[in-house]
Model the fold of this input.
Amino acid sequence: MISTLFHSHLFLLILIGMILWILATVQAQGNVSVGDFLSANDRNMTWQSPSGDFAFGFYPIQGEKDRFLLAIWYAKIPERTIVWYANRKSPATDRDSKVELTSTGHLMLKDPKDKELWRSESLTKDSQVSHAAMLDTGNFVIASNNSANIWESFKYPTDTILPTQELDVDGYLLSALDETCYNKGKYQLRFHEGSLILNQIDMFTGKPYNNYLSFETGSRLIFNKSGHIQIQNSTGSPRNLAPENAVPKPDSNYYRATLDFYGVFTLYSYPRNPSGGEKWSVLWFRPRDICRSFVDSTATLGNGPCGYNSICELINDRRPNCTCPPGFSFLDENNPYTGCKQDYTSYPGDCNPDGSTNGEDRFEFKPMSFADFPFSDYGILKPATELECRQSCLLDCSCAVAILQDPTVSPDGNGTCWKKKLPLSNGRFDRDVIDRTALFKVPKSNTSRTNQATPNPSNENQNQVILILSVLLGTSAVFNFCFLVAISLIFFCLYQRRLQYLDAIPSRRDLETHLRSFTYKDLEQATNIFKEELGRGAFGTVYKGELPSSYGNYVAVKKLEKFAQEGEKEFKTEVKVIGQTHHKNLVRLLGYCDEGEHRLLIYEFMQNGSLAGFLFGVLRPSWQRRLQIASGIAKGLTYLHEECNTQIIHCDIKPQNILLDDSFTAKISDFGLSKLLISNNTRTLTGIRGTKGYVAPEWFRNTPVTVKVDVYSFGVMLLEIICCRRCVEVEKEEATILTEWAFECYREGIVEKLVENDEEARSDVVKVEMLLKVAIWCVQENPFMRPSMRTVTMMLDGAVQVPTPPCPFLVDPMI
Ligand SMILES: *[C@@H]1O[C@H](CO)[C@@H](O)[C@H](O)[C@H]1NC(C)=O
Ligand SMILES: *[C@@H]1O[C@H](CO)[C@@H](O)[C@H](O)[C@H]1NC(C)=O
Ligand SMILES: *[C@@H]1O[C@H](CO)[C@@H](O)[C@H](O)[C@H]1NC(C)=O
Ligand SMILES: *[C@@H]1O[C@H](CO)[C@@H](O)[C@H](O)[C@H]1NC(C)=O
Ligand SMILES: *[C@@H]1O[C@H](CO)[C@@H](O)[C@H](O)[C@H]1NC(C)=O
Ligand SMILES: *[C@@H]1O[C@H](CO)[C@@H](O)[C@H](O)[C@H]1NC(C)=O
Ligand SMILES: *[C@@H]1O[C@H](CO)[C@@H](O)[C@H](O)[C@H]1NC(C)=O
Ligand SMILES: *[C@@H]1O[C@H](CO)[C@@H](O)[C@H](O)[C@H]1NC(C)=O
Done:
């Protein structure tokens, strides 16, 4: 009883299920009569071909709710494969749209408000519509009462052709925009001047660019029933485009040939009786390398498969993978094929009228192997060294990337430098190009940008400094003491952490230093066996050498005389650190020699000698020039302290270590060497570095040495620059010590006394006082009271106000 009930229920359930299934998938497999329609609302309703292979109807668009495409697709293949669609201009329609076969012989697509969205054109006139049908070939036809068809989808292909479909001399395929968007794409397959070609089209006008691929001559493209793509001219027989054996098992596969959205014309196959998990397999495609094809053909212009400023690399041997070079990001994050844009925007004043850039110290280079941008060059230097290449691109405000051919691997031993400007086109990775490096010019992370372009954020910092200073000055001594101790601890910890951090990342630099290694013999020759001595410093003697470089015909060769015993590795490391510095206010290191006991450094040669000779010489340099020099030195020190990869404390700032080039630009020399002399790794120095008169007082107190020692020395030197006298002059009686005298003059309001015989400076007494105040801030005995070099730079440039400085001298209870 129970089982009978169960069985009858089961039977009922199955029956209801079948009815529902039949209702749900009403698919007209026969003829479509006049007046029949399909609604997007009921998309289970389709017009299918007799075998059920193809369906005509509304296809939901991926990722867009209630938006449909009037399309033809493979009905038996689970993978979405659309072979035709209506209305390329705006293919998507809403859910209440309808398509109807009208008595006039048109397929008419209307939106819910009865507005016509698309209609099929008529191929023939004067004929009566009989019916329409989805054929097993994938062709949807509207048949007339005679044998001719009024309309066929095969005559209006989109991006795909199917077996038995032909493309005549006026026909063309147009790719879709991307994988899920069926709007007009960028590529076209068509006949042009008697050949089948592939070309890109201009997105704005639809006009074709030059072809990037030309197939054989012909005037008809035939996709024959067995899956062979053939081309035929008016006289000859069809010739296969793909090799005959590329197309297997004629009858057991579906075939289609699609102009994919990335510009590749591909022949695909799919088994007719799938066993599950199949995918469309690629039988043949052209061009072989879409990333190269724009370069290797006449279509050198156009934006290429990845758009402008991007890099194309083939994946799966066929599809382009688009990436953005360093300093660029995708125009449209969701579509990597649209190209890339530069991350930073230049600011007015980046480019001088002569095309050079003001912001040279804002940029650095990010190297990338294998990347190339054929045909974007506007300048070629040959022969060129890496240094010349970098320099040329750095100073040129048009230059976005330089491609350097390594001289050591180039066949003729001469390097080449290709300078390229925006937009970069046809970028690609080419693993075959092993001798080239692309150097991308990118703004430095956290650079002097703030100080040069947008002073506002820095102003905030400055205000904070002033705030801290005012707090310090305005509170009780006990509080001050605690506060100072706390700050010292914080600074000390930060400093230690920074050092640890820097120690942990030494390897990255190798890429970025490009120093030449010289043999000792080279240098003996260059200096005529160390004949002409230029100077003698803490580290050794400097000789003049003749060695043509990009910086002139002469070099300065520094022979290091003392360095720590463990110096072997240390030397290389320090040389690398120095080699990475690039700033117009630093003397450039060109190379080094590390041979046995010989350690030498080769620098660019400075025409005008040191600031000391200039400042304390017979002819007093002009006030304006002195101001420029002071500001230049401050910038150079800011760079050393805050902007280069590894923080560098100079430890011996004095006029003898500031050199002047032929245009009197100040350049700091001798930096980065102090570590070579310090064997104590804790970096709390026991031995005093620096020069009497310029040394910060903390050297004598066995406290950690920070960048503030340089600020102190800079302050002393700034006073010398103001007064054009040395910091200690015994014969000057009560004015022996410059710092004391200068503060005395300031306190008593007799600033002009400092520039007594200097007409030019006396007429600019406001500036003199400003510089004096900066100097007094810098020579504060308490290192934490001293401003950073960045703040000093801003003060000197007038970007921030200089607050009234306190007395620089601590009342030392020991005295
Ligand atoms: C479709 O209509 C045509 C002409 O009326 C007829 O010859 C043909 O057999 C019909 N096909 C189907 C599948 O009904
Ligand atoms: C279409 O058919 C599926 C199952 O075949 C069913 O789940 C769905 O509700 C149907 N949609 C419409 C609009 O009839
Ligand atoms: C088809 O229809 C047209 C227009 O009604 C008519 O003139 C023509 O004679 C018809 N042809 C046939 C073969 O029935
Ligand atoms: C299609 O072309 C191939 C290669 O030329 C040929 O072998 C085959 O017979 C052709 N098939 C048809 C149906 O014409
Ligand atoms: C047409 O193709 C044949 C080969 O099939 C070739 O010999 C002939 O020169 C071509 N004619 C033209 C006009 O290109
Ligand atoms: C494309 O290239 C990028 C960078 O080389 C890589 O990370 C990514 O995996 C590649 N994408 C594919 C699909 O291979
Ligand atoms: C390399 O450049 C130098 C300097 O211009 C030139 O003299 C030399 O001939 C070049 N070498 C070759 C192989 O071209
Ligand atoms: C740049 O600044 C940001 C925040 O100001 C900081 O998080 C980041 O570590 C800095 N990067 C470098 C390389 O200094």
